[in-house]
Design brief:
The protein is built from eleven helices and no strands. It has 294 residues and is an all-alpha fold.
Length: 294
């Protein structure tokens, strides 16, 4: 009887402990959710007022008060981020392939160390690096969209390398060995077996890297500057971006100040929606590639 009572007491104590921990985790989750919900409500309530056709179809050229829009900032963000992706993805992917498939010596350790260091550098440092590199070629005071793209690429590369490296390491070795047994060379095995198998994770990592840099303000403020006019040329003159647009609208308020604040909130809401869309696209692409691989 004493053994049965002890067993019952132990079971009851475990259930109570489980309920307590479950309640504690749930409470912590709800507390962590409060700032997120509050932020979402604040941005939506303040930014939805300027979600009108004019905001998406006009720039700030010759606008000193009410009206105007963020078309030039949207185009600038699209071009700069696209150029950064074109620069960062091939470099990051090839680096991860080298580390997983070929790197075995001191060089691989040095590259891994440098990637770890790059992961933690402040974004302003990436902007200063890109600006300093182009100043040596074009002289002081240069501001161009391509410089901002290089700065964002510096921030994207370590994210792409790390995510791609993890996905490549998850590919079973048996697949590689089966390909080698059929006489397929290593480079073709990587191209036809390893990459397609890990493409879902690689694509997700790339999309998350884009979402990570698309909201950067400091490096673009230094490298691409800001302007009120449209600019479709990455290699000429200043180029506006959405994060810098939000900053300039808040920092340089005119008359009436409410018009500038409304435009800033609307651009912030648009930026959040873009990041959410990128995360959603990453999940959809990953699911599609996973289905194809199966």
């Amino acid at each position: 009887m004493s053994l049965s009572a002890a067993s019952t007491a132990t079971t009851r104590r475990r259930k109570l402990t489980d309920r307590f921990v479950t309640a504690l985790v749930t409470a912590a989750f709800l507390v962590a959710l409060i700032p997120l919900v509050s932020l979402a409500i604040t941005v939506v309530s303040n930014g939805i007022a300027r979600f009108d056709p004019e905001f998406f179809s006009s720039s700030m050229r010759n606008v000193t008060g009410e009206g105007g829009g963020a078309l030039h900032a949207m185009i600038g963000t699209l071009l700069i981020t696209l150029a950064a992706t074109i620069i960062a993805v091939p470099l990051g992917l090839m680096t991860s392939i080298y580390l997983v498939e070929y790197g075995r010596g001191r060089l691989a350790k040095i590259i891994t160390f440098l990637v770890d260091v790059m992961t933690g550098i402040p974004s302003i440092v990436a902007g200063l690096f890109a600006y300093a590199a182009f100043v040596l070629i074009f002289g002081p005071g240069v501001r161009m969209g391509i410089i901002g793209a290089v700065a964002l690429a510096v921030l994207m590369i370590p994210v792409v390398v790390r995510s791609s490296e993890e996905m490549l390491r998850l590919v079973p070795g048996e697949l590689r060995e089966a390909s080698y047994a059929l006489g397929v060379p290593k480079w073709r095995t990587i191209l036809k077996v390893v990459l397609p198998t890990s493409m879902a994770g690689i694509t997700t990592g790339v999309m998350l890297a884009i979402a990570r840099v698309i909201g950067e303000t400091a490096p673009l403020l230094i490298t691409a500057g800001f302007t009120a006019s449209m600019n479709y040329n990455l290699f000429s003159d200043r180029m506006q971006s959405l994060p810098v647009y939000v900053y300039t609208q808040f920092a340089n308020q005119g008359n009436p100040a409410s018009a500038f604040i409304e435009r800033a909130w609307a651009a912030a809401l648009l930026l959040i929606l873009i990041v959410m869309a990128l995360n959603l696209v990453a999940r959809l692409i990953a699911r599609r590639f996973s289905a194809v691989s199966r």
